[in-house]
Structures are given as C-alpha cells and as structure tokens.
C-alpha cells in the first residue's frame, strides 16, 4: 500500500488538480469511481490569508471521503506557510505545493512553474511550508522551464532534503504547456534517483496508459488529469486493470447520462442552481464527447439556463 507520510492510499490511481474543474462535486464523483486520492483546484495563498469567500469555498472538504489533498500556490515563503496552516485547519490530509502551473497570469508573479527558475526561493518556500504544518507536504512540478531542461532533478533533491513526502512530476516543460508528448523517461529517471514516492503525470488517456506508465517508469502512482474530464469512469477502469488485471466494459450511454446528472445534483447542492448550471455546461459537453450528434447536443447544453434544461439536452 502506498503511503505519503502517514497517509495511506487504497490504490495507485490519483486525480490531478485542475483549475476550474476539480471542485468538491468533481472530487466526490472521482472518489465514487475508486480514485485513491483527489486534489483541489489550486488555491491562492493570498486568497486564503484574506479570507476570500471564493477561496474558502475551493478549500472546503467537509463530508468528502478521505484523503483529500489541497494544493496551494504563491511565491513568498512566509505567506505560503500561513496559507498551509489555514488549509491544514480546514481539513487537508495532504498539502501540495504548485510548482508546475504554466499559465502566464501565474508565472508572471513568480508562482507556479516560475519557481523552477529560482531554486533558492523554492527551497525557502518548501522549508517554510513543511515547518508550518503537521500533515504531509508534496510538490507538483514540471521537468523545467525550457524543452530539454532537467531542473526537476535538482528541485526534487531540494524537496527531499526539506522534508517533502512525495513528488508529482508532469513530464513536460513550461514551454510545452500541454502540447507535444510527456517524456515518461524523466519519471523513470526521477524514480531511480529519489528516495521519495514518485507520482507520474502526463498523457494518461486510458487504463492501459496507466499500466504502461507504472511498468515503464516504476513510479509509485499515476495522476490522471484531462482524460478524466467528463470521464470519471477512467479511474475505475485504471484501478481494475492495475490492481486486478481486469478490463471492464466502457460505460453505456445511459450510465454516462446518469453519472452526469449525479454530478449536476452535487454541483447544485454545493453551489446553488444558477452557478452550478453555468459551470456544469462544460462538464456536460465533456460527458457527451464522441456521441452521435454531439455538436447539436452541445448547442442545447450551452443554451440551458436550468438543471432540467441541462438534463433534457443530454437525454
């Protein structure tokens, strides 16, 4: 059984943090399909410190199946330490430091993947967070800023020295964003050099990909991101194939519809109907990907103003 610090995971399939996607409703759906651990959307250190309502809502884990990781981002060690204490008090089982986000609005502030350009600041930030909390701290990083860079090896070494309990490597550079292919060889290299649990991330599009990454890199777990959008079934499929060597049938159209409706009900419960309908339009569009007539259905989804109209669009 994989352990991150004192936190045990029931299998080796983990959900990636994704801004605007992995809210509470999404995490509950992932857990219902056997995902071992979920992670919040990235949470601003300043939003936590100043008690912004939206930030507090993102960090809410009440009633969720454990474990849940809360991911924080920032660039100042003292503020990040304070933010870590806040999310620990809010119920985080694990605190993840974002050192991989490539988006311009994040990196221009020296946050996310920009921290890979300043390893001394990264060290100070990691040390401050680890020393501020009792729960395990993890770091999610990329290979580095530029194509061909291997900054991840040095940063992972720093993280291990400073008491981090696991590392997730998205095997792309910042310059790649999400294009091209993830270099799984880097995950293998990190696993060979590090004494920490290594979670591989990047280009897991199927249960077979999850098995292949585990076998070719020897990583301890795999983290699934974009492939799970509108497709929480991938967690169950990956767990069955990885743990039991069993391929299970793809979900029927009716199962997809009922799963989307359950997701919508959770979103309405946590956010109210108006916000939920607006945010769930994209999720419903993901749920119907590949369906006959999906383009026409998507038009109806985007016109929906109420939960019943959303349900009618896919039914």
Task: Pick out its properties.
single chain; 315 residues; alpha/beta; TIM Barrel; Non-ribosomal Peptide Synthetase Peptidyl Carrier Protein, Chain A; 2 domains; nine-stranded parallel β-sheet; 14 helices; 11 strands; globular
SSE map:
Layout (H helix, E strand, L loop, with lengths): L2 E2 L2 E2 L4 E3 L8 H9 L5 E2 L3 E2 H5 L3 H6 L9 E6 L3 H13 L4 E6 L4 H4 L11 H14 L4 E8 L6 H11 L4 E8 L10 H10 L4 E4 L5 H11 L3 E4 L8 H12 L8 H19 L1 H15 L6 H10 L3 H8 L1
Parallel strand pairs: 3-11, 4-6, 5-6, 6-7, 7-8, 8-9, 9-10, 10-11
Antiparallel strand pairs: 1-2
Helix pairs in contact: 1-11, 4-6, 6-7, 9-10, 11-12, 12-13, 13-14
Please give the alpha-carbon distance between the first and last residues: 41 Å
* Helix amount: 40-55%
According to DSSP, the number of beta strands is: 11
Corresponding CATH architecture of the largest domain:
Alpha-Beta Barrel
The CATH topology label of the largest domain is TIM Barrel
Put simply, the count of helices is 14
The tally of domains stands at 2
Explain the overall architecture.
With 315 residues, this protein is of the alpha/beta class. The chain folds into two domains: 3-244, Aldolase class I (TIM Barrel, Alpha-Beta Barrel), CATH 3.20.20; 253-314, Orthogonal Bundle (Non-ribosomal Peptide Synthetase Peptidyl Carrier Protein, Chain A). It is built from 14 helices and eleven strands. The strands form two sheets. Strands 3, 4, 5, 6, 7, 8, 9, 10 and 11 form a nine-stranded parallel sheet that branches. The chain is globular and about 55 Å long. The mean pLDDT is 97.
């Amino acid at each position: 059984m994989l352990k991150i610090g004192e936190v045990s995971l029931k299998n080796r399939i983990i959900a990636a943090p994704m801004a605007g996607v992995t809210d509470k409703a999404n995490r509950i759906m992932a857990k219902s399909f056997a995902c071992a651990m979920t992670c919040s959307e990235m949470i601003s250190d300043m939003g936590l410190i100043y008690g912004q309502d939206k930030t507090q809502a993102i960090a809410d884990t009440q009633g969720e199946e454990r474990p849940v990781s809360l991911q924080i981002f920032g660039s100042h060690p003292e503020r990040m330490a304070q933010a870590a204490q806040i999310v620990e008090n809010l119920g985080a089982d694990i605190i993840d430091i974002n050192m991989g986000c490539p988006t311009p609005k994040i990196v221009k502030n020296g946050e996310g993947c920009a921290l890979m350009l300043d390893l001394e600041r990264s060290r100070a930030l990691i040390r401050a967070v680890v020393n501020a909390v009792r729960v395990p701290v993890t770091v999610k990083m990329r290979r580095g800023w530029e194509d061909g860079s291997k900054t991840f090896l040095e940063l992972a070494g720093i993280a291990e020295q400073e008491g981090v309990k696991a590392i997730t490597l998205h095997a792309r550079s910042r310059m790649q964003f999400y294009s091209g292919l993830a270099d799984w060889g880097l995950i293998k290299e990190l696993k060979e050099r590090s004494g920490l649990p290594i979670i591989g991330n990047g280009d897991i599009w199927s249960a077979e990909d999850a098995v292949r990454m585990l076998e070719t890199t020897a990583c301890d777990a795999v983290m699934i991101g974009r492939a799970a959008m509108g497709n929480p079934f991938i967690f169950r499929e990956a767990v069955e194939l990885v743990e039991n060597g069993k391929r299970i049938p793809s979900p029927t159209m009716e199962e997809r519809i009922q799963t989307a409706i359950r997701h919508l009900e959770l979103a309405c419960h946590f956010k109210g109907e108006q916000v939920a309908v607006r945010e769930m339009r994209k999720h419903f569009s993901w749920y119907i990907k590949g369906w006959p007539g999906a383009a026409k259905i998507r038009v109806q989804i985007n016109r929906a103003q109420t939960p019943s109209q959303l349900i009618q669009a896919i039914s």
